[in-house]
Amino acid sequence: MIRKKVLNVNKTTSNKLNSLIKPTAFVNMIFMFLVLLMGALVTKTESGRGCGDDWPLCNGKFVPAYTIESMIEYSHRFVAGLAGMLMLAVFVLVFLTNARKEVKWYASGGLFFTILQAILGAMAVVWPQSSPVLALHFGFSLLAFSLTLLLALAYTKSGSSSQKTVMSSGLRMGIWLTTLYCYGVVYLGAFVRHTKSSGGCLGWPLCNGQVIPELSGETGIVFAHRLAAIGMLILVILLLATVSKTYKRTDSVYKWSQWSLIFVVLQILSGALVTYTMGYDSYLLASLLHTLLVSCLFGMLSYLTVLAIRAKQTEVAGVRAAERS
Protein backbone atom coordinates (compact mmCIF):
# COMPACT_ATOMS: atom_id res chain seq x y z
CA MET A 1 0.00 0.00 0.00
CA ILE A 2 2.75 2.43 1.01
CA ARG A 3 4.77 1.51 -2.08
CA LYS A 4 1.73 2.20 -4.29
CA LYS A 5 1.29 5.65 -2.73
CA VAL A 6 4.98 6.44 -3.24
CA LEU A 7 4.75 5.39 -6.89
CA ASN A 8 1.66 7.58 -7.37
CA VAL A 9 3.46 10.56 -5.81
CA ASN A 10 6.51 9.98 -8.00
CA LYS A 11 4.29 9.70 -11.08
CA THR A 12 2.47 12.94 -10.20
CA THR A 13 5.78 14.75 -9.64
CA SER A 14 7.15 13.40 -12.91
CA ASN A 15 4.04 14.57 -14.80
CA LYS A 16 4.37 18.05 -13.31
CA LEU A 17 8.04 18.24 -14.28
CA ASN A 18 7.25 17.05 -17.81
CA SER A 19 4.57 19.71 -18.15
CA LEU A 20 7.12 22.37 -17.17
CA ILE A 21 9.84 21.37 -19.63
CA LYS A 22 8.18 22.37 -22.90
CA PRO A 23 7.16 25.95 -21.97
CA THR A 24 10.44 26.53 -20.12
CA ALA A 25 12.44 25.26 -23.12
CA PHE A 26 10.60 27.61 -25.49
CA VAL A 27 10.99 30.62 -23.19
CA ASN A 28 14.67 29.76 -22.83
CA MET A 29 15.06 29.64 -26.63
CA ILE A 30 13.44 33.10 -26.96
CA PHE A 31 15.75 34.58 -24.32
CA MET A 32 18.81 33.05 -25.98
CA PHE A 33 17.67 34.59 -29.26
CA LEU A 34 17.40 37.97 -27.53
CA VAL A 35 20.94 37.52 -26.20
CA LEU A 36 22.15 37.11 -29.79
CA LEU A 37 20.36 40.22 -31.02
CA MET A 38 21.38 42.32 -28.03
CA GLY A 39 24.99 41.22 -28.44
CA ALA A 40 24.88 42.47 -32.03
CA LEU A 41 23.30 45.70 -30.77
CA VAL A 42 26.13 46.16 -28.28
CA THR A 43 28.69 45.73 -31.05
CA LYS A 44 26.95 47.97 -33.59
CA THR A 45 26.43 50.80 -31.07
CA GLU A 46 29.97 50.34 -29.68
CA SER A 47 28.52 49.94 -26.19
CA GLY A 48 30.87 47.16 -25.10
CA ARG A 49 32.77 49.59 -22.89
CA GLY A 50 29.57 51.18 -21.59
CA CYS A 51 30.24 49.70 -18.15
CA GLY A 52 33.98 50.35 -18.21
CA ASP A 53 36.09 47.36 -17.21
CA ASP A 54 33.74 46.28 -14.39
CA TRP A 55 31.92 42.94 -14.36
CA PRO A 56 29.32 41.99 -13.16
CA LEU A 57 28.86 45.57 -11.85
CA CYS A 58 28.59 48.51 -14.24
CA ASN A 59 31.11 51.28 -13.54
CA GLY A 60 31.24 50.05 -9.95
CA LYS A 61 27.46 50.21 -9.44
CA PHE A 62 24.71 47.62 -9.36
CA VAL A 63 22.36 50.08 -11.11
CA PRO A 64 24.37 51.93 -13.76
CA ALA A 65 24.24 55.63 -14.49
CA TYR A 66 21.85 56.47 -17.28
CA THR A 67 23.86 56.66 -20.45
CA ILE A 68 22.87 54.99 -23.72
CA GLU A 69 26.02 52.85 -23.82
CA SER A 70 25.80 51.69 -20.21
CA MET A 71 22.09 50.85 -20.45
CA ILE A 72 22.57 48.85 -23.66
CA GLU A 73 25.52 46.92 -22.22
CA TYR A 74 23.89 46.33 -18.84
CA SER A 75 20.58 45.27 -20.44
CA HIS A 76 22.51 42.73 -22.47
CA ARG A 77 24.12 41.38 -19.30
CA PHE A 78 20.74 41.23 -17.54
CA VAL A 79 19.03 39.30 -20.36
CA ALA A 80 22.06 37.00 -20.67
CA GLY A 81 21.84 36.31 -16.92
CA LEU A 82 18.15 35.40 -17.20
CA ALA A 83 18.89 33.17 -20.17
CA GLY A 84 21.60 31.44 -18.16
CA MET A 85 19.26 30.75 -15.25
CA LEU A 86 16.57 29.45 -17.61
CA MET A 87 19.12 27.21 -19.32
CA LEU A 88 20.16 25.78 -15.96
CA ALA A 89 16.51 25.18 -15.04
CA VAL A 90 15.85 23.35 -18.31
CA PHE A 91 19.03 21.31 -17.84
CA VAL A 92 17.88 20.17 -14.39
CA LEU A 93 14.35 19.41 -15.60
CA VAL A 94 15.65 17.34 -18.52
CA PHE A 95 17.79 15.13 -16.30
CA LEU A 96 15.13 14.81 -13.59
CA THR A 97 12.58 13.49 -16.08
CA ASN A 98 14.94 10.97 -17.73
CA ALA A 99 14.50 12.54 -21.15
CA ARG A 100 15.74 11.04 -24.39
CA LYS A 101 19.48 10.81 -24.92
CA GLU A 102 19.58 13.41 -27.69
CA VAL A 103 17.59 15.86 -25.54
CA LYS A 104 20.18 15.48 -22.78
CA TRP A 105 22.88 16.31 -25.34
CA TYR A 106 21.01 19.48 -26.35
CA ALA A 107 20.57 20.55 -22.73
CA SER A 108 24.19 19.80 -21.83
CA GLY A 109 25.56 21.53 -24.93
CA GLY A 110 23.27 24.51 -24.47
CA LEU A 111 24.40 24.96 -20.87
CA PHE A 112 28.07 24.56 -21.82
CA PHE A 113 28.00 27.18 -24.58
CA THR A 114 25.86 29.53 -22.48
CA ILE A 115 28.49 29.47 -19.74
CA LEU A 116 31.32 29.72 -22.28
CA GLN A 117 29.90 32.77 -24.04
CA ALA A 118 29.24 34.42 -20.66
CA ILE A 119 32.87 33.85 -19.64
CA LEU A 120 34.09 35.26 -22.95
CA GLY A 121 31.80 38.26 -22.51
CA ALA A 122 33.19 38.94 -19.04
CA MET A 123 36.76 38.54 -20.29
CA ALA A 124 36.09 40.99 -23.13
CA VAL A 125 35.05 43.60 -20.55
CA VAL A 126 37.85 43.08 -18.04
CA TRP A 127 40.60 42.33 -20.56
CA PRO A 128 39.95 43.80 -24.03
CA GLN A 129 40.17 41.05 -26.64
CA SER A 130 41.24 40.97 -30.28
CA SER A 131 38.64 41.01 -33.07
CA PRO A 132 39.05 37.26 -33.87
CA VAL A 133 38.31 36.37 -30.23
CA LEU A 134 35.35 38.77 -30.04
CA ALA A 135 33.92 37.17 -33.18
CA LEU A 136 34.10 33.80 -31.40
CA HIS A 137 31.84 35.23 -28.70
CA PHE A 138 29.02 35.61 -31.23
CA GLY A 139 29.80 32.18 -32.68
CA PHE A 140 29.44 30.48 -29.28
CA SER A 141 26.24 32.44 -28.58
CA LEU A 142 24.86 31.17 -31.89
CA LEU A 143 25.68 27.57 -30.91
CA ALA A 144 23.94 28.09 -27.57
CA PHE A 145 20.84 29.44 -29.35
CA SER A 146 20.83 26.59 -31.89
CA LEU A 147 20.98 23.97 -29.15
CA THR A 148 18.14 25.63 -27.23
CA LEU A 149 16.16 25.68 -30.50
CA LEU A 150 16.76 21.95 -30.99
CA LEU A 151 15.83 21.37 -27.36
CA ALA A 152 12.53 23.21 -27.80
CA LEU A 153 11.79 21.43 -31.09
CA ALA A 154 12.43 18.08 -29.39
CA TYR A 155 9.23 18.64 -27.41
CA THR A 156 7.11 19.21 -30.52
CA LYS A 157 5.47 16.58 -32.69
CA SER A 158 7.81 17.23 -35.63
CA GLY A 159 10.85 17.04 -33.38
CA SER A 160 10.02 13.60 -32.00
CA SER A 161 12.87 11.13 -32.30
CA SER A 162 10.32 8.47 -33.27
CA GLN A 163 10.44 9.77 -36.83
CA LYS A 164 12.44 7.50 -39.13
CA THR A 165 14.33 9.07 -42.02
CA VAL A 166 16.24 7.28 -44.76
CA MET A 167 19.12 9.30 -46.17
CA SER A 168 22.12 8.57 -48.37
CA SER A 169 25.59 9.00 -46.93
CA GLY A 170 26.33 11.66 -49.58
CA LEU A 171 23.34 13.76 -48.54
CA ARG A 172 24.25 13.40 -44.86
CA MET A 173 27.75 14.62 -45.63
CA GLY A 174 26.33 17.49 -47.70
CA ILE A 175 24.14 18.63 -44.82
CA TRP A 176 27.06 18.58 -42.39
CA LEU A 177 29.28 20.43 -44.87
CA THR A 178 26.63 23.11 -45.48
CA THR A 179 26.03 23.62 -41.75
CA LEU A 180 29.74 23.90 -40.94
CA TYR A 181 30.26 26.24 -43.89
CA CYS A 182 27.37 28.40 -42.65
CA TYR A 183 29.07 28.65 -39.25
CA GLY A 184 32.21 29.85 -41.02
CA VAL A 185 30.21 32.51 -42.89
CA VAL A 186 28.65 33.63 -39.60
CA TYR A 187 32.07 33.89 -37.98
CA LEU A 188 33.36 35.94 -40.90
CA GLY A 189 30.33 38.25 -40.60
CA ALA A 190 31.00 38.71 -36.90
CA PHE A 191 34.64 39.45 -37.75
CA VAL A 192 33.44 42.18 -40.16
CA ARG A 193 31.44 43.75 -37.32
CA HIS A 194 34.18 43.61 -34.74
CA THR A 195 36.82 45.01 -37.10
CA LYS A 196 34.34 47.76 -38.09
CA SER A 197 34.92 46.88 -41.73
CA SER A 198 31.33 47.25 -42.96
CA GLY A 199 32.27 50.32 -44.97
CA GLY A 200 34.99 48.46 -46.85
CA CYS A 201 32.63 47.79 -49.76
CA LEU A 202 30.40 50.66 -50.84
CA GLY A 203 27.61 49.63 -53.16
CA TRP A 204 26.01 46.27 -53.92
CA PRO A 205 26.43 43.88 -55.72
CA LEU A 206 29.61 45.58 -56.90
CA CYS A 207 32.22 46.50 -54.32
CA ASN A 208 33.36 50.09 -54.67
CA GLY A 209 32.18 49.95 -58.27
CA GLN A 210 34.34 46.93 -59.10
CA VAL A 211 33.63 43.24 -59.65
CA ILE A 212 36.90 42.37 -57.92
CA PRO A 213 38.15 45.23 -55.73
CA GLU A 214 41.55 45.68 -54.13
CA LEU A 215 41.78 42.74 -51.73
CA SER A 216 43.35 44.42 -48.71
CA GLY A 217 42.28 45.92 -45.41
CA GLU A 218 38.57 46.45 -44.72
CA THR A 219 37.66 45.98 -48.38
CA GLY A 220 39.29 42.54 -48.46
CA ILE A 221 37.45 41.46 -45.31
CA VAL A 222 34.01 42.53 -46.55
CA PHE A 223 34.58 41.13 -50.04
CA ALA A 224 35.61 37.76 -48.56
CA HIS A 225 32.36 37.75 -46.57
CA ARG A 226 30.37 38.47 -49.74
CA LEU A 227 32.07 35.65 -51.62
CA ALA A 228 31.41 33.31 -48.69
CA ALA A 229 27.72 34.30 -48.77
CA ILE A 230 27.54 33.44 -52.50
CA GLY A 231 29.14 30.08 -51.72
CA MET A 232 26.49 29.56 -49.03
CA LEU A 233 23.73 30.22 -51.57
CA ILE A 234 25.23 27.71 -54.02
CA LEU A 235 25.55 25.02 -51.35
CA VAL A 236 21.94 25.41 -50.19
CA ILE A 237 20.65 25.35 -53.80
CA LEU A 238 22.57 22.11 -54.41
CA LEU A 239 21.26 20.71 -51.13
CA LEU A 240 17.63 21.44 -52.02
CA ALA A 241 18.12 20.08 -55.56
CA THR A 242 19.47 16.81 -54.11
CA VAL A 243 16.72 16.58 -51.51
CA SER A 244 13.97 17.22 -54.08
CA LYS A 245 15.02 14.11 -56.02
CA THR A 246 14.42 11.83 -53.05
CA TYR A 247 11.88 13.40 -50.72
CA LYS A 248 8.30 14.53 -51.10
CA ARG A 249 7.39 18.16 -50.47
CA THR A 250 5.62 17.08 -47.28
CA ASP A 251 8.75 15.47 -45.78
CA SER A 252 10.62 17.30 -43.03
CA VAL A 253 13.94 17.14 -44.86
CA TYR A 254 12.45 18.88 -47.92
CA LYS A 255 10.61 21.52 -45.87
CA TRP A 256 13.65 22.50 -43.80
CA SER A 257 15.88 22.55 -46.90
CA GLN A 258 13.37 24.77 -48.68
CA TRP A 259 13.18 27.19 -45.77
CA SER A 260 16.97 27.22 -45.60
CA LEU A 261 17.10 28.44 -49.21
CA ILE A 262 14.49 31.11 -48.51
CA PHE A 263 16.44 32.38 -45.53
CA VAL A 264 19.83 32.36 -47.27
CA VAL A 265 18.32 34.53 -50.03
CA LEU A 266 16.79 36.86 -47.43
CA GLN A 267 20.14 36.92 -45.65
CA ILE A 268 21.95 38.07 -48.79
CA LEU A 269 19.30 40.72 -49.47
CA SER A 270 19.55 41.96 -45.89
CA GLY A 271 23.31 42.25 -46.40
CA ALA A 272 22.60 44.51 -49.38
CA LEU A 273 20.22 46.51 -47.19
CA VAL A 274 22.98 46.97 -44.61
CA THR A 275 25.21 48.41 -47.34
CA TYR A 276 22.53 50.76 -48.71
CA THR A 277 21.56 52.11 -45.27
CA MET A 278 25.07 53.05 -44.14
CA GLY A 279 25.01 56.60 -42.84
CA TYR A 280 21.25 56.51 -42.21
CA ASP A 281 19.24 55.92 -39.02
CA SER A 282 17.88 52.67 -40.47
CA TYR A 283 21.40 51.16 -40.58
CA LEU A 284 21.14 49.74 -37.05
CA LEU A 285 17.78 48.11 -37.78
CA ALA A 286 19.14 46.60 -41.02
CA SER A 287 22.14 45.20 -39.14
CA LEU A 288 19.92 43.57 -36.51
CA LEU A 289 17.74 42.09 -39.26
CA HIS A 290 20.88 40.65 -40.83
CA THR A 291 21.77 38.99 -37.51
CA LEU A 292 18.22 37.70 -37.01
CA LEU A 293 18.10 36.04 -40.42
CA VAL A 294 21.48 34.32 -40.18
CA SER A 295 20.56 32.99 -36.73
CA CYS A 296 17.35 31.48 -38.14
CA LEU A 297 19.26 30.04 -41.10
CA PHE A 298 21.84 28.35 -38.88
CA GLY A 299 19.07 27.01 -36.65
CA MET A 300 17.36 25.40 -39.65
CA LEU A 301 20.57 23.83 -40.89
CA SER A 302 21.26 22.57 -37.36
CA TYR A 303 17.92 20.77 -37.37
CA LEU A 304 18.77 19.23 -40.74
CA THR A 305 21.94 17.82 -39.15
CA VAL A 306 19.74 16.26 -36.46
CA LEU A 307 17.67 14.59 -39.18
CA ALA A 308 20.92 13.37 -40.78
CA ILE A 309 22.08 11.92 -37.44
CA ARG A 310 18.74 10.16 -36.96
CA ALA A 311 18.94 8.76 -40.49
CA LYS A 312 22.39 7.35 -39.73
CA GLN A 313 21.09 5.77 -36.53
CA THR A 314 18.15 4.26 -38.44
CA GLU A 315 20.54 2.85 -41.05
CA VAL A 316 22.83 1.33 -38.40
CA ALA A 317 19.86 -0.18 -36.57
CA GLY A 318 18.60 -1.70 -39.83
CA VAL A 319 22.02 -3.25 -40.62
CA ARG A 320 22.25 -4.75 -37.15
CA ALA A 321 18.73 -6.17 -37.41
CA ALA A 322 19.62 -7.73 -40.78
CA GLU A 323 22.77 -9.27 -39.31
CA ARG A 324 20.82 -10.80 -36.40
CA SER A 325 18.27 -12.32 -38.78
Automatic annotation (TrEMBL):
GO MF, one example: metal ion binding
Gene Ontology CC, one term: membrane
Localization in the cell: Membrane
A biological process from GO: heme A biosynthetic process
InterPro entries documented for this protein: COX15/CtaA_fam, COX15/CtaA_HemeA_synthase
Keywords: Cell membrane, Disulfide bond, Heme biosynthesis, Iron, Membrane, Metal-binding, Oxidoreductase, Transmembrane, Transmembrane helix
Protein name (Swiss-Prot/TrEMBL): Heme A synthase
Membrane topology of this protein: Multi-pass membrane protein
Organism: Paenibacillus thalictri
Pfam families with a match to the protein in the record: COX15-CtaA
Transmembrane parts of this sequence: 20-42, 78-98, 105-127, 133-153, 174-192, 223-244, 256-277, 283-304
Listed pathway(s): Porphyrin-containing compound metabolism
